Amino acid sequence: MSEPKDQDRPLKVDALKKSQLSEKSLKHKVVKGGLYLALRQLVSVGLSVLSILVIARVLGTTNYGILVNALGIFYFITWTGKLGLHVYLIQQPDLPEDAPEQVLAFLSWMSLGIGLALWMLAPAIGQWTQEPAVADLVRSLPLPIAVDFAASVSIAMLERRLAFAEVGLIEIVAQVTNYLVALPLVIYGWSYWGPIVGLGIRGVAMLVGAQYLYRVALRWRLRWDFLRPALRYGLTFSLSHWVISLRSLTIPVLITPIAGLEAAGLVSIAIRLVEQLSTLRMVVRRMSISVMAKLMGDPAAVRRTVSRGMAYQALLIGSVCSAFACLDSWIVPKLFGDDWLQSTHIFPLIALSAMVRAMFDLHSGALYAVDRNAEVTKSYVVYMALLWVGCGLLLPVFGLWGYGLAELLTVLSNVWLHRALTKIYGAPKYTAAAWLTVAAMLPILGSLVSATVGIVAFVLSYALVLLVPEVRAVPQELFHAVMSRRRKVSEIS
Questions:
Q1: CA–CA separation, 388 vs 393, rounded Å?
Q2: What does DSSP assign to residue 449?
Q3: Could you say which of 182, 208, 322, 491 would form a disulfide bridge with 443 (CB–CB 3.0 to 4.6 Å)?
């Protein structure tokens, strides 16, 4: 091979420098964007907790139950109705110039069709839930759904550009706008209409901000040569998320008709509290596919990562949820009022189920990374079947406790994820995660007896389990990882 000419060397050096600068710039952009998204998550949790406190206390159990029936339908449609097209915009390497306009056009037609369907189905939904007010709220959902669909196109294109900081800012502003509108309306007597109006205002604020940063023109003509492959991709990728999104329909489909609006409100509060306390689960879930994609060629590394990830989830989520379970019988009446005390009876069971599910998020991430989406979908189908069949059988017999028991049944769906992962990579090590699960389970179950029993069980179980060397290494690793991340961020800035 001939030696490069001297005049070629400066060109290669310049290209190398340019590549290094580009890589450094990309790294800085991702870190900066990640910090914005982390800030957005913290602000979101704070605002959500505040809204739960105010709205639930002012509305009471029955009116809050009416609201959550409508919100369950709204979230199911906005999570699934985009048919995965926003994901296609983000992940497809090559897009035609008019791709965003075509997706916006399709989603606009979809929102019109969904709006018409909701208007026609509203009376039936009111009869099913045995509450006419739910039908009135359902008729108001088409506008919030339409603006959410429209905003998702510009946001997808911003994420495609790795503009995470801008996306985080848009979401923070939209959510702040939501609560600035919803909370005063609730306080001044608009009842459950306040959050619905806030939801619409949130969508408008997100659409305006997203369109300002990435303009997508609205055109009604559809180009099917682009949309057909986009829909095939989106439907395949999103199928598992559609199945698990059915969970948001559990309240309007099962709990309200069987147990009534008050039970719907109580269950919703317990679920929302668990979701806010397990916020760190969302961080691991968002990272898991990316991380696993880099390790898929090394089965031993995958097993180690899954084993450690399970232990981290069990420690972080289990300790927070079990601590709250011990104190919730004191905290909830003080913050929400005495009417909400019954939600503390089922909170421990929902928290225990959520903790176990969180441990298997790494399994799902590893399966997604090697395109085993069908295996994840099957586990979600089992999960939903156990939840809905459990609710149908147990709610009429045990009332509110029936939902908590149905949540515990869903733990069995994780067996499918374990088997699917083991076939590809071998079995991960469950020892540390199992010890930490037991440590959280004892105070969670003890809190069902009394707060004092729960607190004593919490102190003793975590004190004893940390004597196990393999378990003690988990919080030590987390501490070192956090300190290392802080040093890296300070060096970059």
A1: 9
A2: T
A3: 322
User: Cβ(423)–Cβ(287) under 8 Å?
Assistant: no
Chain mean position to CA 62: 26
Q: Which amino acid is at 278?
A: S
* Distances, alpha carbon 245 to alpha carbons 81, 82, 348, in Å: 11, 13, 22
Q: At CB < 8 A and 24+ separation, what contacts does 16-21 make?
A: none
* 388/258 Cα distance (integer angstroms): 12
Give me 232's structure tokens: 């095939």
Both tokens of 212, joined, read: 């300002």
Rounded to whole angstroms, how far apart are CA atoms 450 and 457? Answer: 11
pLDDT tens per residue, range 13-37:
344 334 444 444 444 444 444 445 5
For residues 202, 208, 213 and 216, what is the CA-based torsion angle, rounded to 10 degrees?
120
CA distance 85 to 87: 5
DSSP 417-472: HHHHHHHHH-PPP-HHHHHHHHHHHHHHHHHTT-HHHHHHHHHHHHHHHTTSHHHH
Kindly report the pTM of this predicted structure.
Answer: 0.77
How far is C-alpha 22 from the chain's CA centre?
32
What are 333-361's pLDDT values in tens digits? Answer: 887 888 888 888 899 999 999 888 888 88
Give the DSSP per-residue string, 364-389.
HHHHHHTT-HHHHHHHHHHHHHHHHH
Give the model's confidence band at 197: pLDDT under 50 very low, under 70 low, under 90 confident, else very high.
very high
Q: Is 360 helix (H, G, I), strand (E, B) or coil?
A: coil
CB-based contact 99:89 (threshold 8 Å): yes
CA distance 122 to 140: 10
- Least Cα distance to 379 among 406, 412, 356, 404 occurs for 412
Domain residue extents for the chain: 23-238, 278-493
Residue with tokens 């309007």: 252
Query: Tokens representing 451?
Result: 């707060």
Quote the CA–CA distance of 352 and 80 in Å, as a whole number.
Answer: 27
Q: What is the spatial distance between Cα 359 and Cα 191, in angstroms, rounded to a whole number?
A: 38
What pLDDT was estimated at residue 108? 93
29 CA to centre of own chain: 24
Q: Rounded CA gap, 453 and 444, in Å?
A: 10
Task: Tell me which residue of 138, 158, 164, 197 sits closest to 40, measured CA to CA.
Answer: 164
